[in-house]
Design goal:
The chain is of the alpha/beta class. It has three domains: 39 residues, no CATH class; 201 residues, 3-Layer(aba) Sandwich (Rossmann fold), CATH 3.40.50.300; 168 residues, Ribosomal Protein S5, domain 2 (2-Layer Sandwich), CATH 3.30.230. It is built from eleven helices and 21 strands. Strand 10 and strand 11 form a beta hairpin. The protein is globular, with a radius of gyration of 26 Å.
Length: 448
């Protein structure tokens, strides 16, 4: 009796498998994304997801701690995000929207590493060698130890690795690569998963640091199977508008360092360069205006001074507008309700708009006091001094609570000629600034 053929369908968005076809993936919700795998593709999928050798558990006290060696990328911002430098044998995935500068950044990094006489291989599947050469001329990235390979066949990449010893490899991009041993289109789940698995083994076996570029979907996540982010050691996202000069590199996963750090880059004619003085990008030195307040947020270990802008205008609609850019809208609604309840401000008859300058998205609560100050300033049309910062978290009961690393935030503010700070608690070191304690929201009205 013939053996019954096993039928497996795989989602091309998340890698979810099911024995029957469905119009909608139950795991990620994508429509028309399930395709049937042949026997060869099923075997490859098993190889990637299952162990191929037996292992034995050891007592944690018997395990010898290994030290992580690093080498510098010669870029202070990237080294900071990675936790101190690039780890040999690591696999790093970097994603970002089209045109944000992923290829530009990595080509420049490759040239920086090649300056130290390390062999670097840049594999491009989207551009010709001549196109990459034009960009290299603009970036000043022409180094003898930097090699270009315009190829999408993964087997040809492996052949090149046998011809020369490389210490750093860039794959641009993982969605354009395909293996001739897999009968599916480039960018499919099976192709991406298998090639990433092979790159991971290559990185570990030969101690080669590999950076791969991944496209992102319209939802903002890296295209392809979700397992891709689990397989790599580090996941970085490149954020920013291609029409603006400022770019932010943010770490979302890092097995060799922290994930809270960010790197700030500036797009210039010579390419992406580390932003030396980022404070001037986020705060305005113009004359005082109503609806503008300064605060200091913490991104990883880096304090950043930001300007919070508010516009409060009379509404002629039964449902006033509440809009925020760079600040959580639910938290804005909470603060507006607090102002109406505690300070009796009739904001239910006004439209309120909040904007965080520079394209930064605030993810912590230390800017609450500055948001309230900007709203009250706009509502009463009272200017706030550019030499004052507001730092504090606001609770639902109207208390202003202490935030972490206050000393570090005040030190950053004092370095930019800011002389006054409104905080929830007297700091141990004010760094020459005048500090005023505001432990309740009602005390904030004394400044207007």
């Amino acid at each position: 009796m013939a053996k019954k053929k096993k039928i497996v369908f795989e989602c091309q968005h998340c890698g979810f498998t099911t024995p029957r076809w469905m119009g909608k993936c139950t795991n990620c919700g994508a429509w028309e994304s399930l395709i049937e795998l042949n026997e060869e593709q099923q075997e490859i999928s098993k190889l990637v997801s299952s162990p191929n050798s037996k292992s034995k558990a050891l007592s944690i006290n018997d395990i010898v701690q290994t030290t992580v060696d690093r080498f510098s990328s010669n870029d202070t911002e990237l080294d900071m995000v990675l936790g101190g430098g690039i780890v040999p044998g690591s696999l790093t995935l970097i994603g970002g929207s089209p045109g944000v500068g992923k290829s530009t950044l990595l080509l420049k990094i490759g040239a920086n590493i090649a300056k130290d006489k390390k062999n670097v291989l840049y594999v491009t599947g989207e551009e010709s060698e001549g196109q990459v050469k034009l960009r290299a001329n603009r970036l000043g990235a022409n180094e003898d130890s930097l090699y270009l390979l315009s190829e999408i066949r993964f087997e040809q990449v492996l052949i090149e690795l046998d011809n020369r010893d490389y210490e750093f490899i860039i794959i641009d991009s993982i969605q354009t690569m395909y293996s001739e041993s897999i009968s599916s289109a480039p960018g499919s789940v099976t192709q991406v998963k298998q090639i990433t698995f092979d790159l991971m083994r290559l990185a570990k076996d030969k101690k080669i640091a590999i950076f791969i570029i991944g496209h992102i979907t319209k939802e903002g996540s890296i295209a392809g199977p979700r397992v891709l982010e689990h397989m790599v050691d580090t996941v970085l996202y490149f954020e920013g508008d291609s029409s603006q000069e400022l770019r932010i590199l943010r770490g979302f996963k890092n097995r060799f360092g922290p994930t809270s750090e960010i790197g700030v880059f500036e797009m210039r004619n010579e390419g992406l360069v580390s932003a030396k003085n980022i404070a001037s990008r986020f705060i305005s030195t113009n004359s005082e205006q109503s609806g503008s307040a300064l605060t200091v947020i913490l991104e990883g270990s880096r304090p950043i001074i930001l300007e919070v802008q508010a516009l409060v205008s009379e509404s002629y609609s039964p449902n006033p507008k509440r809009s925020s850019t760079g600040y959580e809208s639910n938290r804005l609604n909470m603060l507006l309700a607090l102002l109406e309840k505690k300070l009796e401000l009739p904001l239910n008859n006004y439209d309120v708009f909040i904007n965080i300058t520079g394209g930064i998205k605030i993810t912590e609560t230390s800017a609450d006091l500055a948001v309230l100050a900007a709203i009250i300033s706009s509502f009463r049309e009272r200017n706030i001094s550019k030499e004052t910062v507001f730092i504090g978290e606001v609770s639902l009961v109207g208390d202003v609570r202490e935030v972490q690393a206050l000393d570090q935030r005040l030190k950053e503010a004092s370095m930019h000629n800011i002389s006054k700070a409104l905080v929830s608690k007297k700091p141990l070191d004010s760094h020459g600034m005048k500090t005023f304690v505001v432990d309740e929201v009602s005390k904030l009205l004394e400044w207007f």
